[in-house]
Amino acid sequence: MDLRRLGWTGSLAADLPAGTVPARVARVDRGAAEVITADGPRRVRFGARVRRAAAADPVALPCVGDWAALAPLPAEDVAGDGFELAEVLPRRTAIVRGGVARPSRGGLSGDSTGQVLAANVDVVFVAEPARHGPDPANLGRIERLLALAWESGGTPVVLITKADLAGDALPGLLEEVARTAPGVDVHAVAARAGEGVAAVRGHIGGSRTAVVLGPSGAGKSTLVNALAGEEVMPTRQVRARDGRGRHTTVHRELIPLPGGGLIIDTPGIRRVGLYETGEGVDRVFAEVDELAAGCRFSDCAHESEPGCAVLAAIESGELPPRRLESWRKLRREAEWMASRTDARLRGEQARRWKVITKAMRGRNRP
Which parts of the sequence bind GTP (predicted)? Predict the structure, then answer.
């Protein structure tokens, strides 16, 4: 196989250690991975260096979409198809979900950490069903996944799946989603009927890699099968009473598509926690930041300050109250996550709580 079809580039070749073979990770199991090399697929185990790095930081664990260096095993070692995964090459992009529990050495719950869902992805499809049982599309979940997508370095695209279930409400839903996702392409998709699949395919081609993120039951695997032109991922019906999926897809997998491009199918995401936060939240709520530029005070919190342009936009109907509430929630979470890795912010929070605690103690004194 020509690895350039999988996204192999000259910059990756420059990072490849001498004496190793390049491979792209297609699937990860415990301590091993299925990879694609120029000679075809292989199953390899993780080398000692990779295991040590992952033990120190789970984000360093090889994941689907990674480019890896395979090192030959000694002749007497027949495990791993003659090679081991010796090193993960630098990631161009990475979708990292935060809030994943990391067990402590004693076996109890430890600190939360990050989990890489996919690496070296060009396009992030955010899949949200038009209806999830009795519930309409979840705009808050779309916002969270968009923040994750923007932070990854990939380009997000929102897909309203199972669009045929929306009926006459579909145009209004698409307008509402478009306001929720400023600057992002939004497509209606009914994959079983083939509707909207061509628009999705238009975002993939050549050696570009896409990933589909969304809740269980959103029709992600059905869409992947439609793009592949055959059933490469199993699918099942959602529960009729609540529209919930049943996690038919239990692992992430990289699938080369006929005609070029690759797509990564993923299990349904129940919890979407932010990890590293830069401009992701700001890009999701671009209209809030634009309005904030017109506030009287530069540090306006948009609570009750006089001359607040954001609150004025809510009163006029220009900005839905739900958007401001979502902005506040994700900003608080972003600041909390940043404080976990930023010593200065941790110090500021500690001093703030010290002042609050001292004030509370003063009030309680007789």
Answer: 161-164, 214-222
pLDDT digits (tens, 9 = 90+) for 138-188: 999 999 999 999 999 999 999 999 999 999 999 999 999 999 999 999 999
Binding site feature residues for Zn(2+): 295, 300, 302, 308
Positions at the binding site: 161-164, 214-222, 295, 300, 302, 308
Q: Which of 47, 93, 97, 39 is nearest to 67 (CA)?
A: 93
Indicate the annotated binding residues for GTP. Answer: 161-164, 214-222
pLDDT classification of 208: cutoffs 50, 70, 90? very high
The chain-wide mean pLDDT, for the chain, equals 85
Neighbours of 60 (CB within 10 A): 15
> What pLDDT is stored for residue 357 in this prediction?
66
Do residues 149 and 128 lie in contact, with contact meaning Cβ atoms separated by under 8 Å? no
Strand runs labelled E in the chain: 21-29, 32-37, 40-46, 67-72, 83-88, 94-103, 109-119, 123-129, 131-132, 135-136, 155-161, 185-188, 209-213, 253-256, 262-265
- Answer yes or no: are the C-beta atoms of 217 and 244 closer than 8 Å: yes
List the domains of the chain with CATH numbers: 3-90 (2.40.50.140), 114-265 (3.40.50.300), 285-364 (1.10.40.50)
